[in-house]
Amino acid sequence: MTAAPSAHATRPRMGAGPKVAVVYLAIVALAAIFAGVLSPRDPLAINPSNILASPGVRNLLGTDELGRDLLARIIYGARVSLEVAVSAVVLACAIGIPLGIGVAFCGRRVEAFAMRIIDVFVSLPEIFVAIVILAFAGGGLTTLIVTIGLLFFPHFARVAYGMTRSIRAREHVLSAISLGAGTTWIVRKEILPNMVSVIAVQASFTLSFAMLMEAGLSFLGLGVPPPTPSWGQMIGGLKNYIFINAWPVVVPSIVLFATILSVNVLGDWLQDSLNPELQR
Amino acid sequence: MTDGGERLLSVRNLVTTFDTPAGRVRAVDGVDLDIRSSEVVCLVGESGSGKSVLGLSLLGLIDPPGRVSSDTLRFDGRDLISLPESEMERLRGREIAMIFQEPLSALNPSRRVGDQIAEVLRVHSLASRAEAMDRAIEWLGQVGIEDAKARARSYPHQLSGGQRQRVTIAIACICNPKLIIADEPTTALDVTVQAQVLDLLMDMQVRLRSALLFITHDLGVVAEIADRVAVLYAGQVVEEAEVHDLYARPAHPYTIGLLASVPDVESPRRQGIPMSTIPGSVPNPLELDAGCRFRNRCGKAHDRCMQAPPMIDLQQGHRVRCWLHAG
Q: Residue A38 and residue A35: Cα distance in Å, rounded?
């Protein structure tokens, strides 16, 4: 039987994990946005007399091989990480979602053709393709964003396509058509709202993939060109000195790890809480 | 409201077929149906008789591989067969509205019910956003939902089954349609709620002066609400009559069987006589021939039932498709 109806949706409580994740990500996001104000030092200023320092009073998180302040570089690096990941996901959504929905409305032939092509894209080893593209096109923010965005849009297209197919078969869509709704209206009011939760979860996981990929590419020297700091690039550079002083490479690694973990924890939480049918 | 009223909907030889891997299924096979304005017509049939498909066919809601054809499909002076899809969209919801059997699946789970009611006005550009919301709340009140303003902000899963069906009735009625097609609107509800929802629907029908095509298998409901009844069997209308006529003088063996199987408290069932049923089941729609479709369940079947039975006019408004009444 139906539960006692209440006027307001009861959202599941946020556990400790997601709360910590939100706080942590908020700090990272603020650092990225207000890097200029928050950064204690110039991330590019070198200091040959204080290289590879451990965290301490002078440099809170230590210094790198050129004596640059690691805290400042991590703060500025957050900007690159978030900018690349968020823009790539937005790009992937902007291409993938309309494509997936469009294909689902196109009849069987187009569907079969388009979805097989998408399958080919999905099955490509992403990091390999990214390495090839960036090796030819050269690094840089825009190239990174476009490459990662293009690599991930097929995932969104597939999800959007599948969701559209299944939502379209539901009776409330038939009901909306019986009330005079046209295709555009159906997509906007019946299909998109019912797909948002699934897309949001997909987006949150893609966000962490995109961050990892940016870090990986920068680690390999294919991402943002120096001296602009990025976490992956810092790890890649500092790994060479791990036996002299491990601190400088450990610090950005932990930051990257914690960020990815937070995004994933939040993604899991989203998955559980955004589905209105689980809110009973 | 039995007599008078001009002809609102006129259907001749409506055929809805579905091409399946196993062959072509004629779900609706040559149905003739007239509905006058403000009239309540009940379409009675058991599961698989094609009654829901017929309702969807009228609104042009059959998707491929289904196909609808007819000699005549006129609604309020317009020919729906030749009407372009854009015109059909204008007509749906505004002039012909539909109420579905299961309100939980007929409502969008992720949008507030107030928005969903207001949406009908917005689809047809009949009101501004704020105005549409005001009217949606007003209608929620009219369909008997208390505290309408707060309820408008609820999601469908937060309402009870009866409240949900009230919402779909508000959605169907808000544009003041000339015809409401209700596909078993009370079947999915608790028995205690069924009567209330039925009362509401009939109340709305009288107030809006809409015609109502009520699709059901419940003959008890039919007796209460119908002006006229069409009995559907395996995609064909086997009998059509004014409601009193049908109950007083059922002519088709199937109708007689249906009426006999309605449990009656005053019947001597308690004395150990089993409830009357019709033996067998609806024939496989893939294996239909020209002959009478009821013949293998009919106690009065005869050799000539192998041939297509003619539609015979017994008297004004009472037609039956059966050899028993021929000649």
A: 5
CA distances from A106 to A111, A157, A159 (A): 6, 14, 16
pLDDT tens digit string along A90-122?
A: 999 999 999 999 999 887 888 889 989 999 988
- Helices A126-137 and A141-168 sit at what angle, rounded to 10 degrees? 140
The alpha carbon of residue B263 is apart from the nearest alpha carbon of chain A, in Å, by 28
CB atoms within 10 A of CB B100: 25
Burial of B248 (C-beta count, 10 Å sphere; 0-12/13-18/19+) = exposed
The SS3 call for residue A273 is helix
Residues of B in contact with A185 (CB under 8 A): 123
Q: Which of B86, B105, B171 sits opposite A170 (nearest CB)?
A: B105
Domains delineated in chain A: 16-45+60-278 (1.10.3720.10)
- A194–chain B nearest CA distance, Å: 6
Q: What is the ipTM of this complex?
A: 0.83
Tell me which chain A residues have a C-beta less than 8 angstroms from the C-beta of B97: 178-179
Q: Tell me how long chain B is.
A: 327
The CATH class of B7-95+210-266+275-325 is: alpha beta
Q: Which segments of chain A does DSSP mark as H helices, in order?
A: 16-33, 35-38, 70-104, 108-123, 126-137, 141-168, 171-178, 183-185, 192-219, 231-238, 247-273
Residues of B near A (CB-CB distance < 8 A)? Answer: 56, 59, 61, 86, 89-94, 97-98, 100, 102, 105-111, 119-120, 123-124, 150-151, 153-155, 157-161, 163, 168, 171-172
DSSP tag of A69:
B
Average pLDDT per run of 10 along chain B, which is 327 residues long? 67 90 87 91 87 90 87 89 88 92 90 92 89 92 90 91 92 92 89 90 92 90 90 90 90 88 64 71 80 85 85 87 84
Q: Give buried/exposed letters for A129-148 (b at 16+ CB in 10 A, else e).
A: ebbebbeeeebebebbbbbb
A11: contact with B, CB 8 A cutoff: no
Kindly determine whether residue A170 and residue B163, on different chains, have CB atoms separated by under 8 Å. no
Contact B59 A178 (CB under 8 A): yes
Domain boundaries in chain B?
7-95+210-266+275-325
